[in-house]
Structures are given as structure tokens and as C-alpha cells.
Amino acid sequence: MSLTVEAICAGRAALLPGDKRSAISKSPIDGPVDIGPRGVAGDEQVDRRHHGFPAMAVHLYPADHYAWLRDLFGDRPALAGPGGMGENLFVHGVDETAVCIGDRFRLGTAIIEVSQPRQPCATIERHLGRKGIVKAIVESGRCGMFFRVIEPGLAQAGDTLDPIEQGAADWTVRRAFCLVYRGGKPDRGELEELASLPRVSDRLVHDIRRKHPAT
């Protein structure tokens, strides 16, 4: 099913409360923009250790989750428009249960591939000005997802996100997220299966080994 990309967003670094620099606040781009191995042209990534190319070049946080966040935490100024959760792609009609690790999509003339879930961090709470959001994301699995860029190209708002190749059909983004990040004692066989997927990100494999060192 094709999905309309309502906005493609980029941001520049700014200070958040606590004097932390972050480019989590993003704004829609007018007209065509390059999508390449480093992500969306003009989008700054301050913390390259936890974000960024190549496996985390492009971020999508499902736009339908905005309503869920408002229901739980009230109207947050940062959620007034696209890019409020640090996402590059603002898309309704998709979530973590409908997309799998390794799924490939055409976006404009680019091809992008799902590589891992997004791990929420305290930057989100600083940006939105409310504690408890990370816990809610972890408990719900409404985490968002990262893509690597397989073929660079041009894209713009109004283009469609078209599925072109199935990845690991048993491994939805939400399943991967909950297994690695929710806590508890996950099944070690499942962890090893996820870590061995040919299209999973090296960052997710690193987190599996760090959080669950026996695997």
C-alpha cells in the first residue's frame, strides 16, 4: 500500500533545557530535497554515536502517534506540526506493526530500507517539556523507525512511500523494539535470530550484545 509523505523535515542544532544541543526539532522542507547515505540534505545530526548514517539515515515517527501523545500528555507546542518528534518523514497510516526489518520502499527516486526501531531517550522529554514520555513509548512500542538509504535520490512532500521489497516478515519493528528495549529476560533464541538478520542495523546488534551480553 502506497502512503503519502505529507512532509519531509530537517533541523539544525539548538539548545534544549539542560544546555543539551540537539537537532530533534525539525521543520518541513519546501520542494525537492536530496536523500542520500547521510540522510536528508540539510538535516544536522549532533550525536553521531546514537543517531545518523548509514544505518539510521532517515527517521519516520508515525504521524498517527501524535494524537496518542496529546491524549496522554496534553497539547505540547513541539507537536504543533510535522517534525515535532524529530522525524524526517511525516506519514499517516503506517505504524511499527505494519513494517518489518529490511522492508524496502521507494521514496521519490530514492530507495530506503528499514534497519531498526528508534530507541527513545531523554532528549525527547527535554524537547517536549514533559517527563514520562520515554516510559510511555517503551511500554506501548510506539517507537518509530530508522531507514538506511539503498539508492540516493530526490523526494519532496506529496511523494508516496511505496513498498517494493519485503524484508524479514516475522520481524516487525515493534517486535524488535519490545524484544530489545522493553526490559525483562527476552528469549535468547529470538535475540540471536534478530541479530542475525541480514538487513538489521549494526547499532541494533550492538544494543542486543550490550543489553543482553550472553547472546
Automatic annotation (TrEMBL):
Gene Ontology MF, one: pyridoxal phosphate binding
Ranges of residues in domain MOSC: 27-164
InterPro entries xref list: Benzoxazolinone_Detox_Enz, MoCF_Sase_C, Pyrv_Knase-like_insert_dom_sf
One of the Pfam families matching this protein, by short name: MOSC
PROSITE patterns: MOSC
Superkingdom, natural source: Bacteria
PANTHER family: PROTEIN YIIM
Protein name, UniProt field: MOSC domain-containing protein
